[in-house]
Write a structure and sequence with these properties.
- The chain is an alpha+beta fold.
- It contains 13 helices and 52 strands.
- It has six domains: 90 residues, Immunoglobulins (Immunoglobulin-like); 90 residues, Sandwich (Immunoglobulin-like); 84 residues, Immunoglobulin-like (Sandwich); 416 residues, Alpha-Beta Barrel (TIM Barrel), CATH 3.20.20.80; 67 residues, no CATH class; 82 residues, Immunoglobulin-like, CATH 2.60.40.
- The chain has an eight-stranded parallel β-sheet. Strands 46, 47, 48, 49, 50, 51 and 52 form a seven-stranded antiparallel β-sheet that branches.
- Helix 10 links the parallel strand 42 and strand 43.
- The radius of gyration is 30 Å and the shape is globular.
- InterPro entries: CBM25, FN3_dom, FN3_sf, GH, GH13_cat_dom, Ig-like_fold.
- Keywords: Carbohydrate metabolism, Glycosidase, Hydrolase, Metal-binding, Polysaccharide degradation, Signal.
């Protein structure tokens, strides 16, 4: 949340009821024969992969795969064969591999790559359906289809309260043998119900258990279910014999969605953006098919998950035609929409050069900068704004917009010399407010703010320059709100307030021919912060603001008459409800925190509206196309998770995949700010407002309408409560062994580790609290970890961290070796502005705050020879680079880059004594990195692999022959990193690492 006026709103937490069906996570007690594949002769291990075709409408299906440790097949892969209704399959020989990585394609350029992560599959029979991986044969033998001449049982199983996305029936006829685990795949019968009819021969009953194909079982609390012939239903452990068909009233879904309306197509250079209004359906629209004709490449049909599609790389001066169809979950397809056309122009004179680096984000420590406050490379784009004098910035010669992309390009080597390989920058879109240097008051989301750019130093130039140095750019993005001036291209208010003799100082005289860009000076007013487009002396045509122009009876701080609509408000009618929410937040842990305004300067988007979604998706597609490496998502908690999971996150993955391929999409890093300023695991008991909640996919279907779905999801998850939330072992070792993480339930959004952040007043507390939350995060190895930021310090402090240099060194030693991605706010390497108020808006000079200008510390020249290594430096920047925490940071980065376990490894504290001590391991292909870490305190490790361990800090060598290793306390801020078969000492001794 970014604001420059104080909010005085109450924080309250509602009591939440926690009710859920608890199922034992154990297999049925009846012995079962291990599953084997008999579909193909093979020389080693095999995997039979079944792929659901129901919603695809593909004419061909290919499996593109790579056995673990092996090479990928040649694109598009191997054609799959028909298996049974709605399924194709392929059996592959894995040799000695224990699994495979896989993607699927229609052979014509349309891919299913698990949202950019690829599918991690094992061996035996495997199903992939709508992104969910399970283990069964969905076509399992005619013996399970109820076609025999003996007795039959039809079993319906309800997963409505379980969140399962597939179901298997594991059974044994009375007196007969059990099916092979996990049993036979059940078919979807209707919403929340699965069905299977099985032959019993002469038996008149059966024992049964159910599972989701991924190890979660319902075996009636280990008693198994006793079912008879005929139709039985099983719901919430209750069996109903001779039951009615629970889906009889529903019947098959044969109704097609409505035809997409208002299809639009516009061309820019050789790209066309197609958008349309959302279709409707009785059960819900699953996606869209966009058909393009024209040009020399023939007809193209692509799947789209949202209501906007960007078509790039087209031919010059060519007319293309587009139609759109809607598809529901049953595969019903609407009639094609009306045909629209667009004619391309010429290719850009200078094609965009940006391509994301596309590597695992966990390898890259992050340096976070407020671009406008970091380094001034071009003084001609500096701007002070309307608060320049009042804030005290003018007296300091310190305009709010001071740093820029040119300055950042010129000091990339400083950041690299610190050892960072990723730079998180504040939002780049054109901002508009009285104090908008930070970037969180977006006005034109399609335009880069000119106050940040210079000739030869555009945003694209920054991205390209960073990539040339092997450094990533993470762009801060805002989906939740616009500026109080609205969002150009979507909606801007017709007028704000009355311009009378008193308010003429604030509202400028109208200039019809001038367009605000924050940089250009309007000639009548002499201001770059001109606002003459937002006043009137008479009520404007089309005004919707209630009681416009009538005095409120109040006075401004200056004593001027206040009129209705003088200032933005969600309840005045000034902003249309189609595009903006219409309320103020009352309960920060309530539903209204996701659907109301945070502050008058942050006009809250109605993100459940299709046009708003299209506006934002289209805007951020532009920056994806420029080659940014990831998005940091501001105020993520103020948008419902179901909206993220339905619209925005799939759109990001779809765009990156389309432009740069599946590998880039897999590593495009998205991390959200889910601000939970508490020290407990769940934010005051509200799962919907807890950071880890946003790392998960939805577990059930909701209404097709996004507004209704948001309310349904909020109620459903709150009713489940904290005990009903999913858990994960993705961050944890199994003993000493690394295991392949299961990201099948990941939403694609990672998080800032708010709990560690809140507890970094003491490193031991941060460590303890971080561990406690990790089982509720889909994969905590992707958590972004920092001590303080542009908003808060630990324990919701409003000042920059001032715990002392030793404490800073200890915090850094923990962050750089524990799970997660270490992140540093600019200047913390020198304890810049320690103890100063982080933000006071325009009520005090920026120079006195935690957002002060840092460029004075960077004057001179600097060249980095590698990450964490200075080739040369002169001037003030050389003095900065000589500071003790800088030396500490450089060596930490050198060590982390040399030990893969410290980058992406899972961890465990099992068998370890010590305050901040843990073991980490990462295994991939030929890489097997195992490290024992202790920060500050002594530690003893037992049950570890025997072998030779070398400390990356001192070079000390220890040979383990009895599974035990002890380490003396290295001292506060110091640490030991004993690596099995490691390289030995990395870097040179410094003030803390020695």
């Amino acid at each position: 949340m970014r604001r420059h006026r104080s909010l005085a709103r109450s924080w309250a937490a509602g009591a939440l009821a926690a009710t859920t069906l608890v199922l034992p996570l154990t297999l049925p007690t009846t012995p079962a024969v291990a599953a084997t594949s008999t579909n193909a002769a093979a020389t080693g291990t095999t995997a039979t992969v079944f792929y659901s075709t129901k919603t695809k409408n593909w004419t061909d299906h290919y499996l593109h795969y790579a056995p673990d440790g092996g090479a990928w097949t040649t694109v598009p892969g191997t054609r799959m064969q028909a298996a049974c209704t709605d399924w194709v399959k392929l059996t592959v020989d894995l040799g000695s591999a224990a699994g495979l990585q896989a993607t699927f394609t229609d052979g014509k350029g349309v891919w299913d790559n698990n949202g950019g992560r690829n599918y991690a599959l094992g061996t035996g029979d495997i199903t992939v359906k709508d992104g969910v991986v399970a283990h069964s044969d969905p076509c399992a033998g005619s013996g399970g289809t109820g076609t025999g001449s003996g007795n039959q049982a039809t079993v319906y199983y309800s997963t409505e309260t379980l969140g399962w996305t597939t179901a298997n029936l594991h059974y044994a006829p009375a007196g007969g043998s059990w099916t092979t685990v996990p049993g036979v795949g059940m078919e979807v019968a209707c919403a929340g119900w699965w069905k299977k009819t099985v032959d019993l021969g002469t038996a008149t009953s059966l024992k049964a258990a159910f599972n989701n194909g991924n190890g979660v079982w319902d075996n009636n609390n280990s008693a198994d279910y006793a079912l008879g012939t005929g139709t039985s239903t099983v719901k919430n452990t209750t069996v109903t014999a001779n039951a009615k068909d629970p889906c009889a009233a529903a019947g098959p879904d044969t109704r097609a969605p409505s035809v997409p309306a208002n299809v639009r197509a516009s061309a820019t250079n050789t790209s066309v953006v197609v958008s349309w209004d959302a279709a409707t359906d009785d059960t819900g629209v699953a996606g869209y098919q966009v058909t393009r004709t024209g040009g020399t490449k023939g007809t193209s049909v692509v799947d789209a998950g949202s209501t906007v599609w960007s078509d790039t790389g087209l031919e010059e001066d060519t007319t293309y035609a587009y139609t759109v169809k809607a598809v529901d979950a049953a595969g019903n397809t609407s009639v094609a929409s009306a045909r629209v056309t667009a004619t391309t122009g010429k290719k850009p004179a200078t094609p965009a050069a940006g391509t994301p680096l596309g590597t695992d984000p966990r390898k890259d420590p992050i340096y976070f900068v407020l671009t406008a406050r970091f380094y001034d490379g071009d003084s001609t784009n500096n701007r002070g704004g309307s608060q320049h004098t009042k804030s005290g910035n003018a007296a300091n010669g310190d305009p709010m917009f001071r740093g820029d992309f040119k300055g950042l390009v010129e000091r990339l080597d400083y950041i690299k010399a610190l050892g960072f390989s990723a730079v998180w920058i504040t939002p780049v879109v054109l901002n508009r407010s009285d104090y908008d240097y930070h970037g969180y008051h977006g006005y034109d989301f399609y335009q880069v703010d000119p106050r940040l750019e210079s000739t030869g130093a555009s945003y694209q130039d920054l991205i390209n320059a960073a990539h040339a140095k092997g450094m990533k750019i993470y762009q801060d993005v805002v989906y939740n709100h616009s500026s109080r001036w609205g969002a150009k291209g979507l909606f801007t208010p017709t007028v704000y307030g009355v311009r009378d003799s008193q308010w003429s100082w604030y509202y400028d005289e109208r200039n019809e021919g001038f367009a605000y860009d924050g940089l250009t000076v309007e000639p009548k007013s002499g201001k770059a912060y001109y606002n003459g487009d937002l006043w009137s002396t008479a009520e404007p045509a089309g005004n919707t603001c209630l009681n416009w122009g009538k005095p409120t009876g109040g006075k401004s701080a200056e004593g001027y008459t206040l009129y209705n609509c003088q200032w933005p408000s969600p309840t005045s009618g000034m902003f249309p409800k189609a595009y903006y929410h219409q309320c103020w937040i009352g309960n920060w842990e309530g539903e209204d925190s996701r659907s109301c305004w945070l502050h008058e300067d942050l006009a809250d988007f109605n993100t459940e509206n299709t046009q708003v979604q299209n506006y934002l998706i289209g805007a951020y597609d532009k920056y994806i196309d420029m080659g940014v490496d990831g998005f940091r998502i501001d105020t993520a908690v103020h948008i419902p998770r179901v909206t993220w999971n339905r619209r925005f996150l799939p759109a990001i993955q779809e765009r990156v995949t389309q432009r740069f391929g599946a590998g880039a999409a897999q590593n495009f890093f998205v991390f959200g700010e889910v601000a939970a300023f508490v020290n407990d695991k769940w934010n005051r008991g509200s799962v919907n407002h807890s950071a880890q909640f946003y790392t998960w996919k939805e577990r059930k279907e909701y209404s097709a309408d996004d507004t209704a779905a948001a309310l349904e999801q909020y109620t459903y998850e709150n009713d489940l409560g904290t005990a009903g939330q999913p858990t994960s072992t993705n961050a944890f070792l199994e003993g000493n062994a690394y295991h392949t993480p299961d990201h099948s339930r990941s939403s694609g959004m990672n998080i800032i580790d708010m709990r560690m952040h809140m507890n970094f007043g003491d490193a031991h507390n941060a460590f303890s609290n971080g561990k406690d939350s990790d089982d509720s995060v889909n994969d905590a190895t992707y958590n972004v970890v920092y001590v303080d930021s542009h908003d808060y310090g630990p324990n919701k402090s409003s000042t920059r961290y001032a715990g002392g240099t030793d404490a800073w060194a200890e915090n850094m030693s923990l962050m750089w070796t524990f799970r997660g991605i270490p992140t540093l706010y600019y200047g913390s390497e020198t304890e810049f502005q320690k103890g100063k108020q982080i933000d006071c808006g325009p009520t005090c000079p920026l120079a006195t705050t935690g957002r002060a200008y840092y460029g004075d510390h960077l004057a001179g020249t600097v060249t980095a020879s590698d990450f964490g290594t200075v080739a040369s430096a002169s001037g003030e920047v050389a003095t900065t680079l000589a500071q003790p925490l800088v030396k500490h940071l450089q060596r930490l980065n050198q060590i982390r880059r040399a030990v893969p376990a410290l980058q992406a490894g899972q961890y465990s504290t099992e068998g370890i004594s010590g305050g901040m001590a843990y073991k980490r391991r990462y295994t991939s292909g030929s890489t097997d990195s195992f490290a024992l870490v202790t920060v500050t305190d002594a530690a003893t490790y037992s049950g570890i692999p025997d072998g030779t361990y070398r400390d990356a800090v001192t070079g000390d060598v220890k040979t383990v022959t009895n599974g035990s290793l002890s380490v003396a306390a290295p001292g506060k801020g110091n640490l030991r990193v004993y690596v099995l078969n490691g390289p030995g000492k990395i870097g040179t001794d410094g003030p803390y690492l020695k």
